[in-house]
Design brief:
The protein contains 15 helices and five strands. By secondary structure, it is mainly α. A five-stranded parallel sheet has the order 3-2-1-4-5, sandwiched between helices. Helix 3 links the parallel strand 1 and strand 2. Helix 5 crosses helix 6, helix 5 crosses helix 7 and helix 10 crosses helix 13.
Length: 380
């Protein structure tokens, strides 16, 4: 960035802190151009989408006949997974199993939201608790690796736990809260947006900085769930929120009025570590603000003004004293002293390219998915 002239998109707030961003003659970034040319023409949250949703629900019901559950939903207590749980039960008429992975960082609010949804929807919940000593060891290893992708250990636990459970119980359909409405602007890879679970990367980092064997920690490589799970086992990932009108504020209001569900101050705040990582570690250590992508998605889909986004991102999401106390909490929970965590924070930044990985193969797969229309968000 030091040799680049600073520029911000004329429509959203993505800017040249993304080292690979491009702007056209009108000042629009390539995320906005991709939204206009690729996402919007193929996104139908209207009657057409609803008809597709109903057709899909009938197929899922038919395939799940005679089973205890016809699909599975990973539930974090956040908005997207909570709302898709509501849609699956109340609008699609499905019998989903709600699946929660406890990686040790749930906020009380997230736990409360999960309980309220389970009770309100009358659905079954299965919670898988990750071995904390292994979780902690992997997270400390990633911190010592000095890369920006500090949520990979949690994401690996969440998604791998879900996929392994679905495979073991022969559940064919996985419903997710992934959507264009609030996530059409994909976070750049440099901002901690590594494109999937790379078992080689995880193993290499852990071999260098980890201290204990990961005996039970679930790791399902991206190539396994994109190829083997999909084409050999017939497992299908479904994103119902792309087929209906999904407005963040309206969804928050509905869940609150029906179940007493409480909204979060910002996206991903259901995890105490993710909240700390995105609001403190990432912007202060690496200079990247994931909120830029989050707000830009809402701008593109007409849910937030550019002016409001600029005003909000001009200051931290959480106050300084709270962030200081969270720094101490994270250090203590990971069995580090505050000084040890500070020393890691002050260390030289690195990227995933400093470690063994299969990024090249993942990139080929992602480009193929983009070419055949399975991934419409911008991928470089």
């Amino acid at each position: 960035m030091s040799n680049k002239i600073y520029q911000m998109c004329s429509r959203c707030i993505m800017d040249s802190s993304d080292p690979h961003i491009h702007f056209n003659d009108q000042g629009l970034c390539d995320y906005c151009v991709n939204f206009d040319s690729v996402i919007k023409p193929n996104w139908h949250p209207d009657e057409r989408g609803y008809a597709e949703l109903m057709k899909l629900s009938e197929k899922i019901k038919k395939d799940g006949k005679g089973r205890d559950f016809d699909c599975i939903i990973g539930l974090s207590g956040g908005l997207d997974s909570s709302y898709v749980s509501y849609i699956a039960k109340e609008k699609m008429g499905l019998r989903p199993l709600l699946f929660h992975v406890d990686a040790g960082w749930n906020t009380d609010q997230a736990v409360g939201n999960i309980e309220k949804l389970v009770d309100g929807l009358g659905l079954d919940l299965y919670t898988e608790v990750i071995n904390w000593e292994e979780m902690k060891d992997l997270q400390v290893a990633f911190l010592k690796a000095q890369i920006s992708d500090q949520d990979l250990p949690q994401d690996t636990a969440f998604f791998s736990g879900l996929y392994k459970f679905a495979k073991a119980h022969k559940i064919k359909y996985i419903l997710t809260g992934g959507n264009f409405s609030t996530e059409c602007c994909r976070e750049p890879e440099e901002w901690g947006g590594y494109p999937g679970i790379d078992k080689r990367l995880i193993k290499d980092i852990h071999s260098k900085f980890g201290r204990r064997v990961l005996k039970t920690f679930p790791i399902v490589d991206i190539l396994a769930y994109k190829l083997y799970y999909r084409f050999m086992l017939g497992m299908t990932v479904v994103k119902p929120l792309n087929l209906i009108p999904y407005v963040k504020q309206d969804a928050e209001y509905l869940l609150n009025s029906l179940f007493g569900w409480k909204k979060f101050q910002h996206k991903h705040h259901e995890s105490r570590f993710t909240r700390f990582y995105e609001d403190y570690w990432m912007p202060r250590k690496f200079g990247f603000e994931k909120r830029r992508a989050h707000f830009s998605s809402l701008i593109m889909t007409g849910q937030m003004t550019r002016e409001a986004a600029i005003e909000r991102i001009a200051k931290p999401e959480l106050d300084e004293q709270f962030l200081k106390s969270e720094f101490e909490y994270v250090a203590n929970k990971l069995d580090l002293t505050v000084s040890e965590l500070q020393a890691i924070f002050d260390g030289d930044n690195k990227t995933c390219s400093n470690y063994k990985n299969k990024r090249f193969l993942i990139g080929i797969g992602s480009r193929v998915m983009s070419a055949i229309g399975l991934e419409r968000r911008l991928f470089r």
